[in-house]
Amino acid sequence: MKSVYFWLLKSFVLIFFISLFFFIFIFQLLDIFSNIYHYVNFEVSAVTIGQIALYYTPKCIIYSLPISLLFSIIFTLGNLYMNNELIAVFGSGISLYKFVIPLVIAGVFLSPFMFFFEDQIVIPTLREKNIIQRQALNQSEPYSDNNIGVKTADGKIIYQANHFKDSEKQLIGMTILIKDDDGDINTRYEVQNAFWNDRNWVLNQIVIYKWNDNKNIYDIETTEVLDDPKFAEPPDVFKKLTRNIEEMNLKEAESWISDLRKAGRSYEASLSEYYKKYSFSLTPIIVALISCSVGGLLKKNVLLMSLFLSISIVVIYFVFQLLLSTFASNGMIPPFWGAWSPFLLFCGVGIILVKSART
User: Averaged over 272-291, what is the pLDDT?
Assistant: First the structure.
């Protein structure tokens, strides 16, 4: 069996690295041509474009690994079948399950590699790529936001504002709700606007409503200005959520999601992306299972059919993943299932296909 496995891996490895370089090149071209108009418009130099492409290469590797593994396995098995070599293997008493063990192991080993490579290499290089690209295109991140809701870490103060102006550190059309120790609202502030004074928010044109124990309003006050240190939530928590989980390592992502939860901001989309960091790293396992089962079905035009099957399977997988991620972001399904459902479904499909594959 060792000689058979060596023969199989020798056929597989060469195709794998050729396809890996090919798909890296394709992803680089897609990124360059999607921004070519802006590069020309802002007269970005070839050196800068080269820097952007260089820092984008690790991300292209992560994108390319699953589809390269898929293509190389399908092509290798299809080519062996077309040359009747696969039939000879099966005729010698070696089942498909035993024959493809090295290919499945390759997928298993690629999964932890993808996980740690993305966390340690891809994240910092992608962040640097985006910084250079934004500087070259004179892009700035807009932090002003509308219809904001924020609560303090202890949950006793809830802020609602119609608009946040980042440049002026100003909140407009603001409502502040104060809760007592029992979690009941006992005070409400209606505020025309508020400014940050480097310590806390200074409220202007305020109407204060207070409730008694029977939940009836018993006092209404108005004041022009209120400088109260308890309103000290920093402006950053009111900013538009422009941070991208894709540019964060695991620790940064965990901290960011924790901050969103404490501030009462929507965190479902970020949490789904966080879980996806784990599920995406296991994609090579799915790819190995599915490709091992369909590779032996090809009889002619192996190169074109392998490429077609690889792209089709990847597109179906990522469309399904995008759809469920959208559901998770909108709260229609839990973030965990938004990230893990595609993996579990396609893993099940892969196992079924392997069991039913021709041997």
Answer: 86
DSSP string covering 216-258, please?
Answer: -EEEEEEEEEEE-TT----GGGGS-----GGG--HHHHHHHHH
Confidence of residue 300 (pLDDT cuts 50, 70, 90): low
Sign of CA dihedral 165, 169, 173, 177: positive
Task: Report pLDDT digits (tens) over 213-222.
Answer: 666 666 788 8
Name the pairing type of β-strands 185-196 and 201-211.
antiparallel
Please tell me which residue, 271 or 300, carries the higher pLDDT value: 271
Q: How many residues does the chain have?
A: 359
Which residues, 6 or more positions from 149, have their beta carbon under 8 angstroms from its beta carbon?
A: 158, 159, 160, 264, 265
Farthest-apart Cα atoms in the chain, separation? 91
Residue 295 DSSP code: G
In which band, very low, low, confident or very high, does the pLDDT at 204 lie, cut at 50, 70 and 90?
very high
Amino acid identity at 219: D
195: β partners: 170, 202
Q: What torsion do the CA atoms of 187, 227, 204, 223 make, to the nearest 10 degrees?
A: 60
Q: Which token pair is 157?
A: 């103060």
Burial environment of residue 125 by CB neighbours within 10 A (0 to 12, 13 to 18, 19 or more) = middle
Query: Could you tell me if 166 and 239 are in contact, meaning their C-beta atoms sit under 8 angstroms apart?
Result: yes
Nearest-angstrom CA–CA distance, 16 and 5: 16
Write down the pTM of the prediction.
Answer: 0.71
**How far apart are the C-alpha atoms of 96 and 114, rounded to whole Å?**
27
